[in-house]
Write a structure and sequence with these properties.
Blueprint lengths: L2 H24 L6 H24 L11 H13 L4 H18 L1
Helix pairs in contact: 3-4
Length: 103
């Protein structure tokens, strides 16, 4: 077994232990309202950070503006128009592919 598989297994076990620790420590108690509101705010912030990192970051840790930005713009417009999520994804992928093809 190589180092990659050992790392994957250790991360899986660690993730399981972290997820199991919550119910074991808290039991039947509810989380405080302040903590629940903080957790609710973390989800969109993490998603936004992942999107920005994937769209603007390059391999050399520099800011890159390329065809992915076109797809992000089309996705934002489609979400603004309240289109179904599958339409948002297909439009963004199509716009990105078309921009790469034309430029």
């Amino acid at each position: 077994m190589n180092a990659t598989w050992i790392t994957i297994i250790l991360l899986a076990v660690g993730t399981f232990l972290i997820k199991a620790a919550g119910p074991l420590v808290l039991g039947e108690r509810e989380l405080p309202e302040r903590l629940r509101s903080l957790i609710a705010l973390l989800v969109p912030a993490l998603l936004a950070a992942l999107i920005v990192t994937e769209v603007f970051a390059g391999d050399d840790r520099q800011l890159h503006l390329d065809f992915r930005l076109v797809g992000l713009g089309v996705a934002a417009l489609a979400l603004f128009l309240r289109l179904p999520m599958i339409a948002v994804i297909l439009l963004a992928a199509g716009a990105t592919a078309l921009a790469r093809l034309l430029f």
